[in-house]
Structures are given as C-alpha cells and as structure tokens.
Amino acid sequence: MFQKILIANRGEIALRVLRACKELGIQTVVVHSTADADAMHVRLADESVCIGPPPSRDSYLNIHQIVAACEITGADAVHPGYGFLSENAKFADILAAHNITFIGPSGDHIRIMGDKIEAKRTAKRLGIPVVPGSDGAVTEEKEARRIAAEIGYPVIIKASAGGGGRGMKVARSEADLVVALQTARSEAGAAFGDDAVYIEKYLEKPRHIEVQVFGDGAGRGVHFGERDCSLQRRHQKVWEEAPSPALNAEERAHIGGVCARAIADLGYSGAGTIEFLYENGEFYFIEMNTRLQVEHPVTEAITGIDLVHEQIRVASGGGLSMRQEEIRFQGHAIECRINAEDPRTFTPSPGTITHFHTPGGLGIRVDSGVYSGYKIPPYYDSLIGKLIVHGRNRVECMMRLRRALDEFVVDGIKTTLPLFRDLVGNADIANGEYDIHWLEKYLADED
Ligand code: ADP
Question: Top-level EC class, please (predicted)?
Fold first, then answer.
C-alpha cells in the first residue's frame, strides 16, 4: 500500500480523495495555487505545497511543478481527481518514468480513449454497441455524402480530438452537410490542433446513460451499474441519478456485462466510465472517460462501495476487492450539482459565502470544499458542492431530496439551488420522463 498520496486537484474532489486517504491511513500531500491557500483540502491535508499562481496552466496543469512536489515530499502516488491532468497521458507517462504511481489507467489506455475515432474503433472491436457512422476520419465531401446517405439524415459531425461538448455540427440534409463538414474541420483544427472529424447518425431524443466500470489491469473487469445523466445544460450534467428510470434489471445486467467484459479484454486498470446515448431500447457508445467522474457518489450510494478506496487499492496492486456477484444495487440515489451561478442566466457568481448550512439526516451526503466565510476565487469552475440523496426507491429519494433542498442555505452568492427546488416539483422529473434536451427546453420555456 502507498505511504503518501499527492492529490493533484482542488475543490470538493480534492477533499473527497483526502477523506479516502485518511480512512486508509495514508499520508496526504496537496498542491495548490496561491488563490487556494485557504481552501478546506489545504487545511486538512498533512502537507501542502504551493505550486504557482491562479491560472490553471501555471499551477494545477503544471506537470513539472507537481512532479517536483512529489519528489520534495516523498509522495509515492498521485490521485488526479477529475478534470485538470486526470486524462493526460503524458502526465501518466512522466509519473511512471519517475517511479510514482498514477492512480488511474496506463498512459496508453488514456491515449486510446482520448482520441474519439480510436476510442470508437476500440469499443466496436470489444463488442460495445456504437452509433452507426463512418469507420474513421472523413475528409472528402464525396465520401461524407455517401456515408450520410447510407446512415440517413440527420447526421452529426464530431471532432476526433473534441471534448466538453465542443466541436460538433448537426446536418439535417445534404445541403447542410458540405458546410457542416468544412466548418467542423476548420473549428476542430483551430480549437484542438487536429482537424480529424468523423460522421455518425444524429439521435433525436436519446437519454445519456453511462456505465461505471473497474478493471484490475490483469484481465478482470466488473461493472457498478449505470447512471442517468440526461439532465444537461450545454452538455454539462446538472442532475444525475442511479439507477436510470429508463432501464429494467435485464437491460442493466446486459449492458453492464458487455462493458465489464470489454474492460477485462482491454486489460484496463482502475475506474472508468463508458458513456452511451440510449434511444428506443438501444445503447450507442459515445465515449469512455478514463477517470473518476463528478457523479460517482450516486453509484457509491446504491452499492455501498467507496470507489476511491477501490481506485487506490487497484493502483497499489491489491486487485479488485469484490467479484461481480458481490456488487448489489440498493434503492435509488440522485445528485444535484450546486454551482455558484445565477440560477436563471447561469453566469458565475464568485464572492464570499457569508453563511453555509448543509442538510443532514438519513440518506443525505454533501460533498463540498466550501464553508462559511470562504471566498470563491473567480479562476476555476463554479461547482461548489454536490448534494447526494439516497432512498429505498425513487419516490422516497425524491421526497428526501425536496426536504434536503429546503434545508440547504448558501448566503452571500447566487447558486443553482433554486433550479433544483423547481425541478423536484416537476411532473416529468417525478415520472423520470426526460431526455438530453429536456432541461434546455424547460429553461427556455421559463423565460
Ligand atoms: P464530449 O467529449 O465533447 O462531451 P460526446 O461524444 O460525449 O462529446 O458528446 C457530448 C454530447 O453531444 C452528448 O452527451 C450528446 O448530448 C451529444 N451527442 C454526441 N453524439 C451524438 C449523436 N450521435 N446524436 C445525438 N447527440 C449526440
């Protein structure tokens, strides 16, 4: 087991990882920017190292500084959290070259999944259902027309190097296609330095359903069921739940089994998420995230398993702590992402939190790095906390969520709490009837 883990992140996820390390009796080091000197994870860590000024590229993305912090403090492993360097293959390789364990998959697996064309090809080879489309990159107009005619309009053109919902263009007819191909290629080249794009069928009303997987790196793989993350705004997840209101036990076991076998065949190590669009009973792979996700706590709530403990165990060579049959699903969980944003315009609302009171009681979990008197710096993303509620079934979970939202107090800044108070009273949400466009339509109708 590791002696000392360096946490290369900030905010709620840094604290989340720190808690797991404390439980396992592992020493912690955190790195932070000058803007985060007062952050909770810095206060609670055994050691902290300031690695630079506020801009992420000068601190949280500065590989040399982080490696130096490991050497100075004698950390033998790094947990990257999510975002920042968590899916940076070069970072994983550099740590390996310094004999420091990256708590995540190999650099090669990160690289494969970071390239969407390569990821899709790999998924298909491993027996994961994919969206019908081109086999690889498409450059010629003629070829694009042929493929689109074959799969049928509408189609979507996506950048192989894309991410964060950027670099996608929908074409509803052949006339749209030519323009879409050109703009997608030039935008991808400018944004990602790689103009490779591919074509796939555009699904009109899918849900976003993702499967949590784990591999031991030696040919074993398990799944922890799915999460439904269809409630999104601008491709950013807002509300996540497990299990999905749209799946039955048979579908869950089937897609879970497909994913677990794929992970085993790939020889993948650690936590991963295989993301699908789901429409008319069919799953279509869109991408794989090779890290812990923001929404992992809903899976923890319904399985009772600490996924960060498991990541650390697997990375240290201890293997998976359970077999598939030992992973049982109990009840229902919902996570609300609480952002420091105006709940109507979604403009960031940094500043000082004058009062912070979190809900409590059975089935309530709050993951947050903020506290009363904390000043939110303007440099980073606006997530200030996550409320995760668990109940014996979805109805109980929703009742408990409504109560918890009423109790939650954040004064001094604007937050998205009022949005969740509206959503919890909405009939479509109560019935679990929503797709990936539902929230944007709802917000547009409110205006
Ligand atoms: P990113 O890595 O940028 O998040 P994804 O491939 O995960 O890109 O796609 C992001 C979002 O774009 C999806 O959640 C979905 O809303 C939409 N999308 C992607 N592919 C399709 C498709 N084939 N049909 C319909 N919507 C799609």
Answer: ligase
